Amino acid sequence: MIKKQYPAYFFVAAIFLILISPTLLSNGMFMDGLLYSVISKNLAAGLGSFWDLHLTSTIYPHFHEHPPLALGLEAIFFKVLGNGILTERIYSLTTFIITAIIIVKIVKLVRPTISDTYNWIALLFWISVPTVIWAVSNNMLENTMMIFTSLSVLFAIKSLNRKRFLNIILSGFMLFLGFMCKGFTALFPLSFFFWLFLFDKNFRFKQFFFGTLIMSVTIALSFGLMILIFPESLDSLTMYFNKQVLGSVESVKTVDSRFFIVKQLLLDLIPMILISCIFYLLSRKTKKQKPEMIWIWVLIAMGISGVLPIMISMKQRSFYILTTFPFFAVAFSLLIAPSAESVLTKIKNLLVKKLFLYFSVLLLIVGLGLNIYHIGKTNRDEEKISDIYRITEIVPQNTVISVHKTFGSDWAMHGYFHRFAGISLDRSREYKCEYLIVPKGNTSAELNAFEKQSANLTLYDLYKRKK
After folding, report:
1. Edge-to-edge, what's the strand order for the sheet holding 460-465?
2. For 98-107, how does the pLDDT look when each residue is reduced to its tens digit (9 = 90+)?
């Protein structure tokens, strides 16, 4: 049975590699992911500690904006693979490979009446989500958190059939680990037993209550044990809660409407809906089994429960709901599984199957080739990165450079300098720095104390202090 699935899995992997090829191995990254890679690299180099992370000498030398687990795990990759610009991409890709394996395992548990020949459809739905493809290359904390939220649901489902107590404890512990990656947004799978109770008439209130209670107690005990063993963790999490959680609810605003995240969800689900419609239209004249409606409703409801709480805050970004898409993907795969089976079982011609295998392998080679082709290229911030590389050829590594006040909030600039050369940027002029960076063509009076350095720069001018 596994061998029969190879062509389909090759096909899905090929589509995935082609979609991520322009960005996975090329230079340039979304600002948040860039800063996370800097922190992880620093931790691997001994700058800061797990409970007291370090960004740069001048910006967040004590970083407590997020819990540290995802950054600590990524630091292991920097320890093993070194500081090359591909390290964070390899880590990020690894998180998606692990999540894909978990998705397939979830499908096998919730779809016992349909041949597992079609488990790959859930993966096809998952990689059809634009936010999923975007996140692979951009090193988001949600990439790691997605592993633990998916594992939590996997263990919760397993608890329905065997080793109930142990699997519920494991499910709760996975949510604790998910929280330690990105905070409260990891806790939405706590709703799993509630939705099962609501949609499955055979699932009793007692099972819902004790299942949710055991998960919650496990999470609480995990925090208690962590604080007991690592007392410094309490200070770290307290600062995170005050800055990030309370701050985002009370003052931070990145969208104009609380419904932004709902709109983003609907946009991301469009490819799943279209693919589902295609399978349905192709199979509407054939006799089909009924889909697993209970699991479809449970998984969709649980996915929505990971979206709606974000509306509490006006600080919203599309990638905040990344961890919900594995469950929407499984739900949609269950919905169209009967249609897909009726369509695909019609293809009995051995020659057609072999041609599909060859086509999938060829497509996989193309996907690998496209990713290799983009190594060394730049997918965003090209001029900025080019200038920064030239400046780091002149300025010693691990130093502090003064920058013009207009660059004070250019977080990507801060991130690239420290990621490439360990250079911190002083926007407050607290340091008497040897070098100064100003916007191209700037003629301010303070430049009289500096000599211009030739570096063929596009966006910046580099000056060195006169002796």
Report:
1. 424-426, 400-403, 435-439, 460-465, 450-453
2. 999 999 999 9
Written as six digits, the tokens of 338 are 């009967």
User: What does the alpha-carbon distance between residue 321 and residue 130 come to, in Å, rounded to a whole number?
Assistant: 12
Structure tokens at 221: 């005990």
Contacts of residue 107, defined as CB under 8 A and 6 or more positions apart, other chains included, come to 116, 119, 122, 330, 333, 334
Percent helix, strand, coil in the chain, to 5, is 65, 5, 30
Q: Are 29 and 38 spatial neighbours (Cβ–Cβ below 8 Å)?
A: no
Give the single-character DSSP code of 242: I
Block residue for tokens 């004790």: 210
Tens digits of per-residue pLDDT, 164-199?
999 999 999 999 999 999 999 999 999 999 999 999
- Neighbour tally for 435: CB within 10 Å: 21
Q: Does residue 356 contact residue 130 with C-beta atoms inside 8 Å?
A: no
Query: In angstroms, rounded to a whole number, what is the distance separating the alpha carbons of residues 119 and 284?
Result: 21
Q: Which residues pair with 198 in a beta bridge?
A: none
Lowest mean pLDDT across 77-81, 131-135, 280-284, 358-362: 280-284
pTM: 0.93
Q: State the first-to-last Cα distance of the chain, in angstroms, to the nearest integer.
A: 75
User: Cα Rg for the chain, rounded, in angstroms?
Assistant: 25
> What is the C-alpha to C-alpha distance for residues 143 and 122, in angstroms, rounded to an integer?
18
Task: Compute the distance between CA of residue 283 and CA of residue 293 in angstroms, rounded to an integer.
Answer: 18
State residue 341 phi and psi, 5-degree precision. Answer: -65, -40
Question: H or E element: which one contains 425?
Answer: strand 424-426
Residue 216 to residue 173: CA distance in whole angstroms: 9
The per-residue pLDDT for 307 is: 95
Read off the tokens for 372: 């290799």
Residue type at 313 in one-letter notation: S
Q: What is the mean pLDDT of residues 41-65?
A: 95
| Range among 124-133, 239-248, 439-448 rated most confident | 124-133
- Cα separation, 143 vs 150, in Å, equals 11
Tokens representing residue 340 in the block: 């897909």
Nearest of 166, 179, 138, 147 to residue 29 by alpha carbon: 138
Kindly list the domain boundaries of the chain, sorted by start residue: 2-371, 382-465
What is the rounded CA–CA span in Å between residue 375 and residue 427?
Answer: 33
- Quote the Cα angle for 191-192-197, to 5°: 100
Query: Taking 80 as the threshold, does the pLDDT of residue 349 lie above it?
Result: no
Helices (H), 230-314: 232-240, 247-250, 260-283, 293-305
More confident residue, 352 or 84: 84
Let me know: does 13 contact 5? Beta carbons within 8 Å: no
Amino acid letter for position 414: H
List Cβ<8 Å contacts ≥24 apart for 228-237. 230/51, 232/51, 232/52, 233/51, 235/51, 236/51, 236/52, 236/64, 236/67, 236/68, 237/67
The sign one gets for the Cα dihedral 25, 29, 33, 34 is: positive
